[in-house]
TrEMBL record:
InterPro entries: ClpP/crotonase-like_dom_sf, Enoyl-CoA_hydra/iso. Pathway: Lipid metabolism; fatty acid beta-oxidation. It catalyses: (2E)-tetradecenoyl-CoA = (3Z)-tetradecenoyl-CoA; (3Z)-dodecenoyl-CoA = (2E)-dodecenoyl-CoA; (3Z)-decenoyl-CoA = (2E)-decenoyl-CoA; (3Z)-octenoyl-CoA = (2E)-octenoyl-CoA. This is Enoyl-CoA delta isomerase 1, mitochondrial. Gene3D superfamilies: 2-enoyl-CoA Hydratase, Chain A, domain 1, 6.10.250.170. It is found in: Mitochondrion matrix. The keyword Manganese does not apply. CDD domains: crotonase-like (cd06558). The lineage of its organism: Eukaryota, Metazoa, Ecdysozoa, Arthropoda, Hexapoda. Key enzyme of fatty acid beta-oxidation. Able to isomerize both 3-cis (3Z) and 3-trans (3E) double bonds into the 2-trans (2E) form in a range of enoyl-CoA species, with a preference for (3Z)-enoyl-CoAs over (3E)-enoyl-CoAs. The catalytic efficiency of this enzyme is not affected by the fatty acyl chain length.
Amino acid sequence: MTLQRPPVNSLNLDLLKEMSKSLDEIAKNKSKAMILTSASPKVFSAGLDIMEMYKPDLKRVEEFWTTLQEVWFKLFGSNFITAAAINGHAPAGGCLLAMSCEYRVMTGGNFSIGLNETALGIVAPNWFMDTMTNTIPVREAEYALTTARMFNVEEALKVGLIDEVATDKDDAIAKCKGFIGKFDRIPALARSITKLKMRQAAIKRLQDGRREDLNEFLQFVQNPKIQKSLEMYIQSLKKKA
Ligand SMILES: CCCCCCCCCC/C=C\CC(=O)SCCNC(=O)CCNC(=O)[C@H](O)C(C)(C)COP(=O)(O)OP(=O)(O)OC[C@H]1O[C@@H](n2cnc3c(N)ncnc32)[C@H](O)[C@@H]1OP(=O)(O)O
């Protein structure tokens, strides 16, 4: 699955809906595996589209968050094998997508990956945190989350946030295929049940608290102080360009 929403693959409602549909198709056609990557030469995904949260239409922003939850359920909780070929920056929601896969290969270069929410004055939702503690040790996750740490490629490899470094996108995809090939001699049902048991606690936490998570998000986007911060953040991104 190749993300292709220039310039930075920010996750807006339309892209999330497309992803959700594609994940359904992959599950339905009984694909063995999926590799998630990006058509951009330098950004895997810039995370959530800030414009979806800025001065939002309430109905749309509710659908936006619900669809993000759905994409996470379908990706994190998939039966099929998932790997991410991270060929560029992966901040926040971009990191969430990569961590929701089972294996991550990142191309070398001046790219960064991490959950930077606290730097934006935001508390990452529990399921973002659960996805991180499913990937790297709890102590490292707490440190990274509280300090909004963006890891460079070497740091990400050292902490286990990524599994391998690749020279370029083709190499990243080849390495993801190498990971997928490891399952050729492992019974598929045993593999998928084991994966889902490992992920069950995090999945159940969001299933049980899904409405509450949505309400927290809706309160968050309707808070005037948050709106002011988002406005300043958008300006800073635009000034940079
Ligand atoms: C207690 C419980 C509380 C519950 C509520 C909590 C709610 C939490 C909500 C979830 C929170 C966070 C999740 C997120 O994912 S928020 C998004 C965070 N993402 C970022 O901060 C990344 C910002 N972008 C960048 O750092 C860079 O763009 C890049 C990815 C490193 C790429 O750099 P670049 O130099 O290649 O591109 P750049 O010139 O910066 O950008 C090009 C244009 O794209 C626009 N843009 C960039 N990122 C976004 C984005 N995330 N959304 C929308 N638009 C984006 C940028 O403004 C440029 O636009 P223009 O060309 O100038 O018009």
